From TrEMBL:
Residues 237-272 are annotated as: Disordered. The lineage of its organism: Eukaryota, Metazoa, Chordata, Craniata, Vertebrata. Residues 1-28 form the signal peptide. Transmembrane segments: none annotated. Pfam families: VWA7_N, VWA_4. It is found in: Secreted. InterPro entries: HMCN1-like_VWA, VWA7, VWA7_N. Keywords: Secreted, Signal. Its main location: secreted. This is von Willebrand factor A domain containing 7.
Length: 378
């Protein structure tokens, strides 16, 4: 039951029922737009994932100017919500559809949100940086990113799923740990890079939280300088003196020390540290941008563009008049063709097929060859 003064108590039973269906029993940043009914103004996993992807896609577009079109200008995009349609129109031309890109991004976002619903992932503290399992959490996160890179060459659906899972954990770190409360203004420098040690972790016998009987618990962390995270539910059970995740769904938070430290939402009913939600979301966004950039780096621009379906699956055709009398023009055309190919190579505009169609005077046109990928690379 909700306490009488919970922010949701003005909602009638049907709305509450709806919320219980929509909100997973473990919560992180809320998974998607539907769960915002519970805490309007909260930033969801889906928001973070999409904004980060658009940010890095814009970065790619700025660094790889579109062949034959005016380069994009950063000023045109600063200070407003990035939209896939705007980015694609600026890069590929007005009206160019961003549908496939949005669908790919949807797959990543849905896989991210699913981490809170699927029986295999929702109660595993390692996948949410819960229960002080920070080292284990990082190992799983780095593993999921590595699997994304491997799968990107073979199976985009699998790669997008692994990426969604990795981003979910990464974003949870900022709302489930006390990184923000430690006064940190930047993402954790070692979460994505496993060779660095995660330092200053609270040990099992370091008490971290005091009892808090209110919904809001702004001062319940015990002057901690060590990194910790909240325990959720009963797996594993909360040792004495440790922080809970907190909120309506967390059984552990009714055992002393009561309360909790999560920053998943703006709602005190779900998030005892709701006042730090926006700070946590800001760091989660920066970290997500780092993760997409890392992926772009590992896959190359071409691989990254394929993974997110940025590249239009297109063919580039060259039709050459090979009639004997055209010798000089053929050479000029070859140079032109080479130039066109070079401009696109490795960029989001690189076509997936090249088609060469020679024809000569007396008539018939022969399809000479279709080359998959860059000519000259294989
Ligand atoms: C992309 O993210 C960076 C932060 O990493 C920010 O400085 C930049 O303004 C963002 N770009 C846009 C167009 O919002």
């Amino acid at each position: 039951m909700l306490p009488a003064d919970a922010p949701l108590s003005h909602l009638g039973p049907p709305a509450l029922l709806l919320l219980q269906l929509l909100l997973p029993p473990t919560t992180a940043f809320f998974p998607n737009i539907w769960s915002l009914l519970a805490a309007p103004g909260s930033i969801t996993h889906q928001d973070l994932t999409e904004e980060a992807a658009l940010n890095v896609t814009l970065q790619l577009f700025l660094e790889q100017p579109p062949p034959g079109r005016p380069p994009l200008r950063l000023e045109d995009f600063l200070g407003r919500t990035l939209l896939a349609d705007d980015l694609f129109a600026a890069y590929f031309g007005p009206g160019f559809p961003s549908r496939r890109f949005r669908a790919a991004l949807g797959e990543v976002s849905r896989a991210n949100a699913a981490q809170d619903f699927l029986p295999t992932s929702r109660n595993d503290p390692d996948l949410h940086f819960d229960a002080e399992r920070l080292g284990q959490g990082r190992t799983r996160l780095v593993g999921a990113l590595r699997e994304t890179v491997v799968a990107a060459a073979l199976d985009h659906t699998l790669a997008r799923q692994r990426l969604g899972a990795a981003l979910h954990a990464l974003q949870d770190f900022y709302s489930h740990s006390n990184w923000v409360e430690l006064g940190m203004q930047q993402p954790h420098p070692h979460l994505l890079w496993p060779r660095q040690e995660l330092r200053s972790l609270a040990q099992v016998d370091d008490p971290t939280c005091s009892d808090c009987e209110e919904l809001s618990c702004p001062g319940n962390l015990l002057g901690v300088t060590l990194l910790t995270s909240g325990y959720f539910g009963t797996h594993p059970s909360k040792p004495p003196g440790k922080c809970s995740h907190g909120g309506h769904f967390d059984q552990s938070s009714s055992q002393p020390p009561r309360g909790g430290i999560n920053k998943d939402s703006t709602s005190p009913g779900f998030s005892p540290h709701h006042m730090l939600h926006l700070q946590a979301a800001k760091l989660a966004l920066l970290a997500s941008i780092q993760a997409f950039s890392l992926l772009r780096n590992r896959l190359g621009d071409r691989g990254f563009s394929r993974l997110l379906d940025i590249t239009p699956a297109s063919s580039l055709s060259f039709v050459l008049d090979t009639t004997g009398s055209m010798g000089e023009e053929i050479n000029a055309a070859k140079i032109q063709a080479r130039h066109i190919v070079e401009q696109r190579r490795g960029s989001p505009m690189e076509p997936s097929h090249y088609v060469l169609v020679p024809f000569h005077d007396p008539g018939n046109c022969v399809l000479a060859g279709i080359v998959q990928g860059s000519p000259g690379q294989g």
